[in-house]
Amino acid sequence: MISVKPDWNDSADLLGYSNIRGDFQPGPILETIKKAAEDPANPYLVCLDEMNLARVEYYFSDFLSKMETRHYDGDQIKTDRLLNENDFDQNDSNDSKARYSNLHIPDNLYLIGTVNMDETTHPFSKKVLDRANTIEFNQIDLTAFLEEDYSDQAQSLKVTNQFLKTKYLNLKDLLPAKEVEVRRTTEELELLSGKSGKL
Hints:
Helix content is 31%, strand content 13%. The protein is α/β, with parallel strands linked by helices.
């Protein structure tokens, strides 16, 4: 769980920065990314709590850009490296360059964000929404909790990354095996896209 702060205004708040002495200070997400990269069989979930307290496009833009570089490397999906050589100072005494310079977004890292939509938060840009799946809870019946039978609690489920991992990065990855479905879906999306422009 990472609590987003209202004053986050660039990727240094999430990924890290070099302090005045030249020592790299890793951001709150880097250690989880490192663990996920070292343990590819298991999924790692990171929750950005109240992620729109700050402008998501400001502190998350570098991360979104790296997500766009996803590609297959053998049977794993990888991205370009998260940090560049110039993110580390030559005077870094923490050996951070060796620890973090080769990190990429592994295919077993899943980002979840909680948001509130009120006067203290920022709206999402289309760039962010285009890269996200959203679930909106706008009608909650609190009285339903009183009527539920909780004697039969659900059991936790241990899953590997194969349970959550995507099989396809791009639409073309479905071809030729699923060409009929791709054509039908594409035609329906084109139809919906045309209708939404006329509304």
